Amino acid sequence: MNKQEWIKAFKAAFPYTVPVLTGFLVLGMAYGILMQTKGYGTGWSVLMSAVAFCGSMQFVAITLLTAVFDPLQAFLLSIMVNARHLFYGLSMLSKYKGMGKVRPFLIYTLCDETFSISYGITPPADVSPRCFYLGISLMNYLYWVLGTFLGGTVGSFLHFDTTGLDFVLTALFLVLFLEQFYKQENRSTAIMGLFASAVCLLIFGSANMVIPSMILILLILLAERKRICS
């Protein structure tokens, strides 16, 4: 794979990542600022983003870092928050098949936003799928790290009330959901997901609904797979 092919693939992938660029810069800055208010400098926040790269859990981890450490609680909380990635991985098995040496990086950087983009689009016919998917994953990864760096740097000079700042993560998820919902072929599965989540919210409560919701959604999709795929 020569340099020109890589450049061509990254140019083709970039427009798809622009919404994530804007969202991740804001989210990353919010995370960097929040870390700064808790006494963790820019280096620590950037290291966390570069190594962990799990946006929602990173926001949750701020509380874990500033409280008495409970390994079991941290482990279970991480599973609950990130359980959805199990389903992302299963859904991307066919897309990431035959990706060669870049496959571990693609798996490592498969966040919500990258999944939303990569799962829903097909690379242009004249572009290498491996370079195309790597471009999406790498750019989204760098957006998050850059946003964190900017937030950590700005946060060291600014002092203001950060209450509610972490809501930007929820806002981004909502935007991604609406973007997928506007596509006619995705509406039935979106409604199924909303129904399953609402049922689990009523039964298990907001603190324990994530894993039951994922299981119920999976069961519904398996039951309806023939109709959905037809």
Automatic annotation (TrEMBL):
- Provide a GO CC annotation, any one: plasma membrane
TM stretches of this protein:
12-34, 105-121, 141-158, 165-182, 194-222
The biological processes this protein is annotated with in GO are: L-valine transmembrane transport
Q: Which domain of life is it from?
A: Bacteria
Q: Can you say where in the cell this protein is located? A: Cell membrane
Q: Which Pfam families match?
A: AzlC (PF03591)
Q: How does it sit in the membrane?
A: Multi-pass membrane protein
Q: What keywords are annotated for this sequence in UniProt? A: Cell membrane, Membrane, Transmembrane, Transmembrane helix, Transport
Keyword Metal-binding carried by entry: no
**PANTHER family attached here?**
INNER MEMBRANE PROTEIN YGAZ
Family, per entry: Belongs to the AzlC family.
What is the name of the protein in this document? Branched-chain amino acid transporter AzlC
